[in-house]
Amino acid sequence: ARAELAVRRAERDFARDLLAKTEIRAPGAGVALFADKRDIVGRPVTVGERLMEIADARRFEFAVDMPVTDAIVLATGARVKIFLDADPLRPVEARIARFDYRARTLPGGGVAFRVTAEPSDPSAEPPRLGVRGTAQVFSTPVPAAFYVFRRPFTATRQWLGL
Question: Does an H or E element contain 150, and which?
């Protein structure tokens, strides 16, 4: 009976060790973000594979996809107004933190530059994670003729191959 008890205790300790290895502890508090839960349910994972990200809900940034056709000269620290779909009448003031120099293909089929903006007021109430909206990005002033002739000039340049 003692031998059976020792075997059962060893099995219990082994099961506890396996359970302890399945727990994932984050270095800090935050919100767990998954790309798509259905991608990982029932699928074996490998060591080092990214399953989720932990985000601090108090520190947030805005990701703006600027279409190549609307590209302007950007500068770090430039003003951005974010109009969130959840509250479009109260825009959030932000500043450009960084931006891509290379355009990338979007899932919808367009090509855009990624602009990352941080809120101007860090103590502002953070929006809900994943909320979408529209951004108005400001740059240096240019003559009105630039806006009037920008698209025709671009189309002519592409047609001529210049």
Answer: helix 144-160
User: pLDDT 10s digit of each residue in the chain, 162 long?
Assistant: 899 999 999 999 999 999 988 877 888 888 888 777 777 788 888 888 887 888 887 788 899 999 887 778 888 999 999 999 988 899 999 999 999 889 899 888 889 999 999 999 878 788 888 889 999 999 888 888 877 888 888 888 888 876
Distance from the Cα of residue 15 to its chain's centroid: 38
What are residue 108's DSSP bridge partners? none
Neighbours of 79 (CB within 10 A): 14
- From residue 139, give the alpha-carbon distance in Å to each of 40, 70, 145: 42, 12, 16
Q: Structure pTM? A: 0.66
Distances (CA, A) of 128 to 27, 78, 84, 131, 133: 23, 24, 10, 6, 12
